[in-house]
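# nightly structure sweep
# worker-07 picked up a monomer target from the shared queue
# config: single-sequence mode, recycle default, output format = structure tokens
# input follows
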Amino acid sequence: MPAKKQAVKKKAASSKTVNSKAANSKTPVYDESKIKTLSSLEHIRARTGMYIGRLGDGSNPDDGIYVLLKEIIDNGVDEYIMGNGKLIDVSIKDIGKPGAATVKVRDYGRGIPLGKLVDCVSIINTGGKFNDDVFQFSVGLNGVGTKAVNALAVHFRVVAVRNGEFAEAIFERGKLKSSRKGKLKEKVKDGTLVEFTPDAEIFKDYLFNAEFIEKRVQNYAYLNAGLTLAFNGKQFMSKRGLFDLLYEETGDDGLYPLGYYKGEHSGNGQMEIAFTHTNNYGEVYFSFVNGQFTSDGGTHLSAFKEGFLKGVQTFYKKDYRSEDVRDGTTAAIAIKLKNPIFESQTKNKLGNSEIRSWIVQETRNAVEDWLHKNPVASKKLEQKIAANESLRTELNAVKKEAREAAKRVALKIPKLRDCKYHLEDGKHGQESTIFITEGDSAAGSIVSSRDVMLQAVYGLRGKVENVYGKKRTAIYKNEELFNLMMALGIDNDIEGLRYAKIVIATDADFDGFHIRNLLLTFFLSYFEELVTGGHVYILETPLFRVRTKKETRYCYNEKERDIAAAEIGSSHEITRFKGLGEISPKEFGQFIGEDIRLVPVSVNTLKQVPHVLNFYMGKNTPERREYIMKNLIEDAG
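# output follows
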């Protein structure tokens, strides 16, 4: 056979084989039958993250179960804002029982209109929040919140009481099971009761943290002076609003008495601010919109900062730099708007641009007026600004020396294995993470198993310096800490942060605990806002591996180890991991992937920070030695 004909024949045979493979492929057919239309409640369950953000298990204050609670409390707060009901009662039954707690929220407002009760809790875009006459400054503008709670609860019960009559509806995972109406035999105050049990199929092994809830309830009280909220019998109430919030956070650490202002803007908005300065480094802000804590700030917070600077500049008649005025600031701002625009359903950041001018002007006037009325405070603030100017000049000189030294050794941030996306990359960088590890061994395990798109690794050469009580210039003179700041992008200021999450990944032994404390001292002393902004975490890794030839389980404590050993049979072997470097890269991948366990580092109040740092990192007192012997060593055993 001629070569040309043979080639054609082979090509045809090859083509036939390819077509045959295509015909026999398992690729599903994509046609009209594959198009689905979900009901609103089905969509909430299928795409839960769109409505409540992260799911979580309750170990983080931003986890979904707390969002569900917030959505219901918000309704009671909205009633109070409109002048109805001065008490909201919150209780959680079986709060310490994983996956089974039931929440009850009772407000004493007007009560949901009885004839629309079922619609208001189950049909998306249905509710009274669209009507300015009955709700002026509401957080829940989208008609979604309560419906999301309903859809994501294995049990949901709502009762509305109005003028001696009631209506009740009971749902299961968003589906109506029963409803009834009637007249009450006894006199009961108007209002709404919502009872729900989060669905354990969605919120795996969830557990409510009472401290997180108390903090949230306390904030509601600060933001709504005169409103009483009770949680499991404990009452929270504030008479002075944000003034009380800021005093609780700073105590007597303020350099001058708290500044405070509350006013209304042409009937379209309200603003309340409180402020002071401390000797701490950096800036700390608490910002709220219609009672919603905006953890990522937004236009209201940026306008407040601008107005505060202008007020100070006008009063002192000096063109102060913003960083000199703001360093050491602790402040709070709460505004109420008729039509807030948030950048996501979870409402962490405000986007209204039209509010900027009036917030800037009102803040400027309020700050200038307060300084005129408080001459002692104005003198203290002037001294603080002068100290900040002096420190900035000194820091700039030290930074320059540090950068020149880095250039001389051709420094390219040693020990950093970077990732592709960073915080500045918008949506792509929202999950960017940097792991801070001790030594090359631990770093190697993470580097080999990480997601190179979103996970960076920085390996420390050893224990970092204890910076407790030292001037800020000291961290720029320390090569290890300077390199760490460069890796994080905070060598100039906090605005340059390159990663959404900073994860401390140290061994679960004495040296690991010590390095962890040294790093936390560094962050809390000089970059407190990284902690208060929810950027710092501690990585949990398994202490034990229990396995047989057929099954392997990883356990994070002795209790999990004993349960695993009892369940998988007598032929098991147990491995105790002494350090991260002992976990192979193949194994390590699962501990920094979808099932990663992160413990957020948080502080209850800012005024506790100096005391805690002094106790752990100050002079080695007998009390500290006794505490460490009793707690850390027992835990590590």
